[in-house]
Amino acid sequence: MSVQGNAEIYSKYRYELLRYATALVGPSHADDVVSTVVLKTIRRRSLDELENPRGYLLKGILNEARGWSRRQNHTRVPHMIERTTPPDLGEVVDAVRRLSVQQRAATYLHYWESVPVVEIAEIMGIGVGTVKRYLFLARRHLKGALR
């Protein structure tokens, strides 16, 4: 196990991992999610032993975020007011947070990180069609929530 190899790989991807975790669980829990995933991973094997450490860590963050999301008691409040003005940033953030973790993950990777759908499917461990469905459902939800 190479401590220096782990440090180099972590340094290379840390900001991307943190942005991804922030998109999935919010800024107050993102550090914890990333730390948990990195520590769990390096307890098992060195990051430099992984064929695709970036993909492995992104998938780990998604799995950890799913567990985090299940443990939270999110109440989804329907948006009943008809919109006549553009949404403010807070409303956009709230609408994104009401997406499922899987929809948020696919949306973040596709639209913010420009990751191709095929690679998103690999990272998430699902089929390409499922990724496309998550993106469709997310767009539909956001369109309805931000009207």
What does this structure look like?
This protein is mainly alpha-helical and 147 residues long. The protein has two domains: 1-73; 78-147, Arc Repressor Mutant, subunit A (Orthogonal Bundle). The protein is built from seven helices and no strands. The protein has helices at 3-25, 27-44, 53-71, 89-97, 101-112, 117-124, 128-145. The model is unreliable at 75-83 (pLDDT under 50).
Structural features:
0% strand; globular; 7 helices; 147 residues; Arc Repressor Mutant, subunit A; mainly alpha; 2 domains
Structural class: mainly alpha
Q: Termini distance?
A: 52 Å
Write down the secondary-structure element order: HHHHHHH
| Residue runs with pLDDT of under 50 for 5 or more positions | 75-83
Number of domains: 2
Strand content: under 5%
Number of strands: 0
Tell me the major beta sheet: none
What is the helix fraction of residues, given as a range? over 70%
Q: Please tally the helical runs, counting DSSP H or I stretches of 4 or more residues.
A: 7
Query: Please, what is the average pLDDT?
Result: 84
Radius of gyration: 17 Å
Oligomer designation? single chain
How would you sum up the global shape? Answer: globular
